[in-house]
Specification:
This protein has 255 residues and is of the alpha/beta class. It is built from 9 helices and 7 strands, in the order E-H-E-H-E-H-E-H-E-H-H-E-H-H-H-E. It has a single domain, classed as 3-Layer(aba) Sandwich (Rossmann fold), CATH 3.40.50. Helix 1 runs parallel beside helix 2, helix 1 packs across helix 9 and helix 4 runs parallel beside helix 6. The radius of gyration is 17 Å and the shape is globular.
Length: 255
């Protein structure tokens, strides 16, 4: 019987894959047979650890550094991956960060632009960089990692981040409409409150307790619980899913 989750022979690029959800997605997709490019910006050590763990398990992975807010670095990243692994079949736009919790009175124009560039423009640039090859081959899958914040406005001081993620959800639908007629599927995964370095950096223990109180499953999610949905959307098992945003939040937000 055919295994629709088999990614053998596929080339996957995951941005922001040196830790958290991105690292879990890279690890899982390698287990599923893909050759994986681990994108990172500052955390080279984390990227190397993910690569080495994949290699130790018998998989194939490389690391590639890029500031995904810059078009020239994105193009260089894609060229490196293509040169070392082959044409990219799967793009996971996972790079992003809240950067800083700021009330509206504190929010500067520069910080607003930084948050938009990292969480929204980066996905556009990366998608643009891989689209031509995918369209030429009439195959490919793009998965954008958005956030529950894009649905509910986010936690305290996360307005700019929530806005960027809401924009990315909309961009997912727009890009899906454009690329689907050419055999390229675009979808999104929307994590809720996930136990990753993100919340270690931006949420206090009290905030996390308050978040958990609103989650019907009564706990934080894990990076791997998000990664499994990302990998599903990238696989042939989701072959008729286009423009969808899958919520992974333990029931915190039921649409």
């Amino acid at each position: 019987m055919r295994n629709y989750l088999d990614l053998t022979g596929r080339i996957a690029l995951i941005t922001g894959a040196s830790s958290g959800i991105g690292a879990a997605a890279a690890t899982l997709m390698a287990e599923m047979g893909a050759r994986v490019a681990i994108g990172y910006h500052a955390n080279q050590k984390g990227a190397e650890q993910v690569r080495d763990a994949i290699a130790h398990a018998g998989g194939k992975a490389i690391i590639v550094r890029a500031d995904v807010r810059r078009s020239d670095e994105v193009r260089s990243m894609v060229e490196t991956v293509t040169g070392q692994l082959g044409a990219i079949d799967i793009l996971i736009n996972n790079a992003g960060s809240l950067i800083q919790r700021m009330k509206i009175q504190e929010l500067t124009e520069e910080r607003w632009d930084e948050i938009m560039d990292l969480n929204l423009k980066s996905a556009m640039l990366c998608s643009q960089a891989v689209a031509a090859s995918m369209l030429e081959r009439k195959r490919g899958a793009i998965v954008n990692v958005v956030s529950i914040a894009g649905r509910n406005g986010g936690g305290p001081g996360a307005g700019a981040y929530a806005t960027a993620k809401g924009g990315l959800t909309t961009f997912t639908k727009s890009l899906a409409k454009e690329l689907a007629p050419h055999g390229v599927r675009v979808n999104a995964v929307s994590p809720g409150v996930i136990d990753t370095p993100f919340h270690e950096a931006f949420s206090t223990p009290e905030m996390l307790r308050n978040f958990v109180a609103t989650i019907p499953l009564g706990r934080l999610g894990t990076a791997m619980e998000c990664a499994t949905v990302i990998a599903f959307l990238a696989s042939d098992a989701a072959g008729f899913m286009v423009g969808e945003t899958v919520e992974v939040n333990g029931g915190q937000l039921m649409l």
